[in-house]
Design a protein that fits this description.
This is Probable oxidoreductase. By secondary structure, the chain is α/β, with parallel strands linked by helices. It has 11 helices and 10 strands. Helix 7 (about 180-200) packs across helix 11 (about 300-315). The chain is globular and about 50 Å long. About 50% of the residues are buried.
Amino acid sequence: MSTFGATTTADEALEGHDLSGKLAFITGGASGLGQETARAMAAKGAHVVIAARDQAKLDEASAAIKEGSGNEKVETILCDLASLDSVRACAKEAGERFDKIDLLINNAGVMACPLMRTADGFEMQFGTNHVGHFLLTNLLMPLVLAGTDKRIVNLSSRGHFFDEVHHDDPNYESREYEKWAAYGQSKTANIQFSVGLESRLADQGIHSYAVHPGGILTNLGRHMTDEDREWMMSRFKKSAGESDGETPSGFKTIPQGAATTCVAATASDLAGKGGVYLEDCNVSAVDDENEKSGVRSYALDPAKADELWAISEQMVGQKFAY
C-alpha cells in the first residue's frame, strides 16, 4: 500500500487483482466515483451491481461500464436512499436476484444541500448518507454473509472535520441548520458506522472500512453555490500547497478519487484490519489538530459508534443483532 498515493488511479489500485467470481454491489453507481469504481472492478472480472434512484441514468451508466470494462456482467437495481420503503424494496429484490455480495460499496451521497427532509422526515444529508445506508447494509447482510473475503466500504470525507454526530438531535429538529456542519455530521456517521460494523461482524469474517476519496468535481456538489465552490477551492489550494500539475488546486480526477475505495475493497494488507479510515490509498493516523489529513478521534470512538447504532435502529424501526 505504501507505493500508492494521491495520484493513484482505480485501475492502478486494482492491478494484479482478479475479481472473477466476486459480486460488487455499489450504491450511487450511475455516475461519478460509483460508476468509475464499478468500471474498474468490472475490468478485473467482477460481477457488478449498480444501485441508484433513476433507471434511465442506471441504464446509461451500465452501458458505459460494459463498454469501458469489456465485461457484460453489469446489472442495475433501483434504490432511493432517502426513502426507507425504497431501501427495503431494493434489499428484498436483491435477495431474490443475487446469491451473495462479496464487496458492498456504500458510495452514494448528497452534500451541502439546503435544509430538506427525506421521505421519513430525517435531515436529508444524515438520512441519505447514513440512515439509508445503515438500513440497506443491514438488510443485505444475509447476502454479504454468503460472500467470500467480505468487505464493506463506506464513503466518508475529510468533511467529517466539520462536526461530530449530535446523537441528541441528528435531524436538526431543535437546533439551527448549517449545511456544512450537517454534511460533516453525516460523514462522521459514515466512519462510526464502519467502526460499529467491524465490532459486530469481524468475527464472522466481514470487515468494514471508511474512506475519504479526496476532493473531486462530481455531481455530489450539485447543491453548491458559486460562493460554496470558491470557498472549497480555497480550502483545497491551502491544503495542497502548490499544484503538482496532476491534481490542480488539490482536486483529484474521478479515477484518482475511486482509487482509495478500490484499495479498501481489495488490498491484502488490509485483510482482517477493518474499522479504519483511509485517504490517499493508505490508512490515516488519528489527528485532532491537522486540517490537511488524518481522522478525528471522535469518529473512531467505539462508544460513540455504539450510540449511533442505537439511534439508527430507532430511526429505521428495526434492531440488528449479530
